[in-house]
Design a protein that fits this description.
It is elongated, with a radius of gyration of 27 Å. 35% of the residues lie in helices and 17% in strands. The relative contact order is 0.15. The strands form 2 sheets. The protein has a 3-stranded antiparallel sheet with strand order 3-4-5, with helices on one face. A two-stranded antiparallel ribbon has the order 1-2. A hairpin with a 5-residue loop joins strand 1 and strand 2 (9-10). It has helices at 50-58, 80-99, 112-130; strands spanning 2-3, 9-10, 15-20, 36-42, 69-74.
Length: 137
């Protein structure tokens, strides 16, 4: 079981692990040992609360397929077990990030003093540039 919060838990049965060969340098061993891990988590068919499912599905995450399956590839470490733990940690981070509600932005306007200051600076820059012209004899 993967504990997200005290109330939200992902059962081990909903997680699908697949051992694959890691990419990159590693010598002769890289072609023989499947140390990288693919973690597949079906968001749509999971036991997560509905509000959390919709938040996860609405996120623009390249790891999320059109079917609603979150695929995490872990290949940071040389051992398969460490990569498995890393994949679980990253899944936990993704779900916890979806739990955080963004604060609504309140649109603001510049103050009258800020507007006047901006116009005054523009005039000064314009005058400075006007003085750069050719000098007539």
């Amino acid at each position: 079981m993967l504990m997200i919060t005290e109330q939200i838990v992902i059962p081990e049965a909903e997680l699908e692990f697949q051992a694959i060969r890691a990419q990159g340098a590693g010598g002769q061993n890289v072609n023989k040992v499947s140390s990288a891990v693919h973690l597949r988590f079906d968001v749509a068919g999971s036991s997560l609360p509905d509000f959390l499912k919709t938040r996860l599905m609405e996120r623009r995450d390249s790891r999320l397929t059109a079917d609603g399956v979150l695929v995490i590839k872990a290949q940071r470490f040389r051992s398969q077990e460490k990569n498995r733990v890393d994949a679980l940690d990253r899944l936990k981070e993704v779900v916890q990030a979806a739990l955080v509600v963004q604060k609504a932005r309140r649109p603001t306007r510049p103050t009258l003093g800020a507007k006047k200051k901006r116009i005054e600076k523009k005039k000064q820059r314009g005058q400075k540039k006007a003085l750069r012209g050719k000098v007539s004899p």
